[in-house]
Amino acid sequence: MAFDNVSAKSFKVVGTRPERPDGIEKVTGQARFGADAYLPGMLHGAILRSPHAHAKILSIDISALENDKSVKAVVTRNDFECNLTGEDWNILENIMAGEKALYDGHAIAAVACSSLLEAKDALKKIIVQYEILPHVTDVEEAMKENAPVIREGSARSSVPKGMHPNIVGYHESGHGDVEAGFKEADLILEENFRTEAAHQGYIEPHACLATMMPDGKGEVWCCTQGHFNVAKVCAKLLGSDASQIRVTASEIGGGFGGKTAVFIEPVALALSKKATHPVKIVMSRNEIFRATGPTSSTSMHVKIGMKKNGKITAAEGTFKLQGGAFPGSPMAESAMCAFAPYELDNVRSVGWDVMCNRPKQAAYRAPGSPMAAFAVESIIDEFCKRLKLDPIEVRLINAVTEGSKSSYGPKFQRIGLVETLEAAKSHPHYAAPIERGVGRGISCGFWFNFGGETCVSLALSEDGTASLSVGTPDIGGSRASMSQIVSEELNIPYEKVRATVADTATLGYNEISHGSRVTFATGLATIKAAQDMKKKLCLRAAKVWGLDEEAVYWEEGYVKPAGPNAGDHEPLSIADIAKTMGRTGGPIVGHYEASPEGAGVSFATHIVDAKVDKETGFTSIERYTVIQDAGKAIHPSYVEGQFQGGAAQGIGWALNEEYIYDKKGILQNAGFLDYRIPVASDLPKIDTEIIEVPNPGHPYGVRGVGETSICPPLAAIANAVSSSAGIRMKQLPMSPPKILEAMDDNNG
Amino acid sequence: MKYEAPETIDQAIDIYSKFNGSKKILAGGTDVLVQLRTDIVRPEMVMNIKKINSLHEFCIVDGYWKIGAAVSASKITKNTAFISEWPGIAEGVGLIGSTQIQNRATLVGNLSNASPAADGIPALVAANAKVEIVGQQGSRVKDVYSLIEGPGKLHLSKDEFITHILIPLQRDRSADCYLRFIPRTEMDIAVVGCGVNLSVKNQSISSAKIVLGAVGPKVIFADEAAELVLNSRLDKDVILKLQRMCEEIATPISDKRGSIRFRRQVAGVLAKRALQKAYARALEVS
């Protein structure tokens, strides 16, 4: 029997909305998050951080701690591996400064004490001598000739010779002849856009509990999107073996990309190694804002040419992203996603990766794409206003479809952009009259998807139930959707499957839960593991019946003899086979391990109504609709949750969230009081519509859905606000002071 | 750190006045506990006053609404008799933090924290509220406005603390209002606040107090603006002038929460809106 390509065509469980398996623990407060672990003899770690944006560290004097009995361990950079290169070195340099403090909040030293209060007091006794250096926090300023140099020699080979050392990456993509395209245009519009850094704003702080024994065996409990990566990074930074450091992922209170990075786990391990006690570190919100990664701030220039009928003739964009004091800003993603929704004969995108005295940027939900969409979709909106065209029609005229050459290179397979636009056009929101003073904005958005290393194990229990071990932390409901998949494949009830996020010692390497990959890749792995199990069940039944493998087949939860020649055997259920498996050949376990190919990209269209109070600049979001292609929604409630979550975070980013630095490069709003993520009452009910255009690369047609939902909001909201305020907003966030300022400037 | 929880006001006076080190009074704890946690304060003694019965008083005594220092914000926002008399003060209290915070936070705590942006203060000042203070020398009464020295500072001796807020009964044909501006809808700190208390006679304003918050080190009386609206029915030209006057009288700083220009502009807008709302309320009760 060939099981490889067998998959359900009509679903029984996939597409339904069963109860989440982690619900009771979470609503009763019993779920164990990063800070909820305790061990006998546990110490508390605390980290000393730079009060300067850019400074040479002349000396770190810890002599005051040497006779302090409350202090069990002190670590500085000297306690970590010294021969690292590339990204390993970057991570170490970021979590514990070497020769220079590179941003306000950069870690300098750490201590472990019996109580957190003692640890905080011990930090005050460490004397650090700094030589303050000139700093730069603005992306444009950092590229200028006289800008302070963050670090020489960080530029990748893609950067043209003779550029400032802060410019560390260059990307170029596109095709056709842009200049010729602009000549064909009836109208050309070009504009500069700026966006500020926004933090992922997960409510749970980074937290870990780590033990490192003198023999080199380590244990880590932490909240992370990728515990296998934590093990790998910790091993490198401490000069240990990845297999000696066993990492268990806790429940996670939000990550949104920000918990793909490693910050405190190697520090806790280093402290534990010295103290020979377990060490717990929990970051404060202040530390999270100052020293974990927000996304990049940007400066962008976009130029588009259009015919009177709405057809784009050429498009060009430059995307400058600062990624903090390290290379790695998602400028290539900005450049690649910017024009991805449109079929263009002539397109050119350029990206610049720039270093500043800010924390190392970390992934944030579709890194790079939302800002680029803000710039491009704002200009398209302006075209619609000037040429009196319908914003959905213009996007339909230019929309990419199956076979279109993408702006970043490859040809698209089956995709669902047009379907989202058609759904938007016929949505009641789009037909609803626009009230006086309200502006309506539309935007499309695009994001990739990918597979990555994935390994799962599906074990059959004696009672016929199934236990699935996955290696991808559940950040968006994957335990529910994976259980649905097992249930679908094996024909056993959803409640009879338990999915667990296994630790790093239990499974092969699993890539981080990022890039919207889990439902696609772990989902595919789970289908394959279930199929592997079905094959083994058939083999076992065949063995019991004394038949060849070919003489049996699987149907709806039973192994049956293939025909009259196979004999008159009663079909065996999973439960029947499980009951006796110990005697008929031992445990039955399905496996899958690979780096799956075939990920399918996804598109979304958002509709927003916003109303600006022209006297105060206050914006209220009156109505919001998300329409997105999910390929196939395994658990539609979670998919809708992802759609709404992206929109909610986009509303915050568009309206109020920003990193505010003073003249000395010190972050002014390192807390939730002045870093304003939306509160519940700031948000309207966010309507969702799931479009299902199957991804040909997945047995069920799944596409990643977690990130695309944050790509259109910045632009859609900016278009709505601009329309309501009567002025084009070209800078984010569109906070009340900035809106009033823009309106004043326009009038004056 | 020493923790005290006296059960009578005399015990409290004794403990508090005799302790010479750094000390904090704990009522709701919504400021103090946060400050402790973030290491902003580390007092040598914390005195919990919630066990003192008299500080839970919330009633009318001798022509004043008397609100004890341990009365939670939600007790105030749920007292219908009080709200109908002082809707503006209740509005201010109802804007502090969130529902959960208001179940613990106190108005006296909001006043004692003396933030320039306190939502509880402008309407109290506009209502000419007073506080009862106790200390080694006995008790005294002081009006809220002159009690405030500046950001985080009250005119209190080291041995003194506030036991009650005293709010005069509202006059006939009068009403108050408090509005604040924040970039979000709740759980935020005032960028500008404005409390108004006014009376009407024959549909014209016969007396008015306008108090601006968060645009100076302490609340600001917009007396000239208040004079301007006297005998008016808030016609368009009066409103326009009032708005300009409030913009000018404001002395805000530029910071992460807003620029000088923005805060002045919004101070004018809020004064206008608060005045209009208080006026409409006063007409309703006339």
Your description of this structure?
- The complex is a heterodimer of chains A (748) and B (286).
- Chain A is of the alpha+beta class and 748 residues long.
- Chain A folds into three domains: 23-31 and 458-468 and 478-588, Aldehyde Oxidoreductase, domain 4 (2-Layer Sandwich), CATH 3.30.365; 34-134 and 200-291, Aldehyde Oxidoreductase, domain 3; 368-449 and 600-747, Aldehyde Oxidoreductase, domain 4 (2-Layer Sandwich).
- Helices cover 29% and strands 23% of the residues of chain A.
- Chain A has 20 helices and 26 strands.
- In chain A, helix 7 (227-238) links the parallel strand 10 and strand 11.
- The termini of chain A are far apart.
- Mean pLDDT of chain A is 96; it is low at 1-8.
- By secondary structure, chain B is α+β, with helices and mostly antiparallel strands.
- Chain B folds into two domains: 2-168, Uridine Diphospho-n-acetylenolpyruvylglucosamine Reductase, domain 3, CATH 3.30.465.10; 174-285, Enolase-like, domain 1 (2-Layer Sandwich), CATH 3.30.390.
- Chain B contains twelve helices and 14 strands.
- Chain B has a five-stranded antiparallel beta sheet with strand order 4-5-10-6-7. A four-stranded antiparallel beta sheet of chain B has the order 11-12-13-14.
- The longest helix of chain B has 26 residues, at 260-285.
- The A-B interface holds A 120, 284, 286, 615-618, 620, 655-656, 660, 668-669, 673-674, 676, 678-679, 681-682, 735-737, 740-741 and B 38-39, 181, 183-189, 191, 255-259, 261-262, 265-266, 269.
